[in-house]
Specification:
Radius of gyration: 16 Å
Mean pLDDT: 96
Strand content: 5-15%
Strand order of the largest sheet: 3-4-2-5-6-1-7
Bound molecules: adenosine-5'-diphosphate, magnesium ion
Number of helices: 9
Distance between the termini: 15 Å
Helix content: 40-55%
Shape: globular
Number of strands: 7
Length: about 210
């Protein structure tokens, strides 16, 4: 098991950002998930709220972005506007020394403003399902180069009634990709989605007592 961020083999730019953010050592879900995610494998990560799941997928997503290519290579699905904003902010903090930008896309925000932001070709999109589908239907987002898809807070997605939207999005993004599901709990509908869309996933489950 890797005990420090240095041992995880992440690039110096991210190590510096992690230090700036005051993260002294990886949390249990980060220790186990980061090496698996870096290998390109599909992953189910389950750990309590507040245990650092955002960086558990955010760091490997940043490592896997090819900065010579424009446009979204990773899509992170978030259940709420607040979470999309917060996750994009954390990823942009982690990316502060890299030429990588994460854009939050959510309902309720002026769509013209989003068209403009999307034309700047952000590397990572952090989106709520409804607004992402809206852009997909309008053809205002190019997902043809997406290689990583993260479903964040899967249990909240179920509570919000987003399962059908998520299924549509998962089916529309190129199949040659890495898919990761993160959640505090794994309700039935999320397990079913995982069975359909994840390829031989590694399951990382951190018990509350060890956190
Ligand atoms: P979760 O998604 O599991 O609920 P978050 O990713 O939102 O948790 O993280 C919760 C808080 O912990 C955030 O403020 C985040 O910046 C912080 N955090 C994440 N990883 C670490 C770490 N390795 N050390 C210290 N704080 C961390
Ligand atoms: Mg979270």
């Amino acid at each position: 098991m890797y005990e420090t961020f240095d041992e995880l083999g992440i690039q110096p730019e991210i190590l510096q950002a992690v230090k700036d953010m005051g993260f002294e050592e990886p949390t249990p879900i980060q220790k186990v998930s980061i090496p698996v995610a870096l290998s390109g494998k599909d992953l189910i990560g389950q750990a309590q709220t507040g245990t650092g799941k955002t960086a558990a997928f955010g760091i490997p997503v940043l490592e896997r972005i090819d900065t010579t290519k424009p446009g979204p290579q990773a899509v992170i699905l978030s259940p709420t506007r607040e979470l999309a904003i917060q996750s994009a902010e954390e990823i942009n903090h982690l990316a502060q020394y890299l030429p990588i930008h994460a854009l939050p896309i959510y309902g309720g925000q002026d769509i013209e403003r989003q068209f403009k932001a999307l034309r700047k070709k952000p590397n990572i999109i952090v989106a709520t399902p409804g607004r992402l589908m809206d852009h997909m239907k309008r053809g205002t987002i190019d997902l043809s180069n997406v290689q990583i898809l993260v479903l964040d807070e899967g249990d909240e997605m179920v509570d919000m009634g987003f399962i059908d939207d998520i299924r549509t999005i998962l089916a529309a993004i190129p199949e040659e990709r890495q898919t990761m599901f993160f959640s505090a709990t794994m309700p039935g509908p999320i397990r079913e989605l995982a069975e359909t869309f994840l390829k031989d996933p590694e399951v990382v489950k951190i018990k509350a007592a060890t956190v």
